[in-house]
Amino acid sequence: KVEDGDWRTPIYTTRSKTEAAIVQLDPREVGHWLSESGYPIEDTKEMSLSEARATIYAEMEPVEPYSTDIEENDDYNGVTRAVHRLLHTISHLLMQRASVHSGIDETSFAEYLFTDALATTIYSNNTQNYTAGGLFTLIDRSLDDWLLSTLNQGERCMYDSTCAEIRGGSCHACLHISEIGC
Description:
Oligomer: single chain
Structural class: mainly alpha
Shape: globular
Strand order of the largest sheet: 1-3-2
Number of helices: 6
Largest sheet: 3 strands, antiparallel
């Protein structure tokens, strides 16, 4: 039983052996993208990794673990929201393309965002303590193809090649992942 005033947050989990891929973004590129996009941050393109990381972290608000309301929460500033949105976008694209390259159904993948670390994790979302090794095989044999196709797919839309210009972002066809994985 958690007593009143206790700092712990109970979470309910199930243990499962699975496989995962962690993708961490280069802070120099993220800071450069933020600066070019008009966010109030110094361009980090020519900085060292540690300088760029420090520059971004100085502008971000700490993200609460298991937070799902970053976009609507006023506790988070624009830089934090933009980094979270960038990671979430990349995560969805990675899951979509992992499905294509591995033959594993898209709903068999899930994501976990580490906004403060500029990283996302894609993992096999299973509860049977069994994994067929599809994600491992994808990374071991087709990592370059997976990442390149993710980059290329991020620039296309099956409905309209200009949906980013019209909508200011992406439509459901570009980035939608079922609630099971998102």
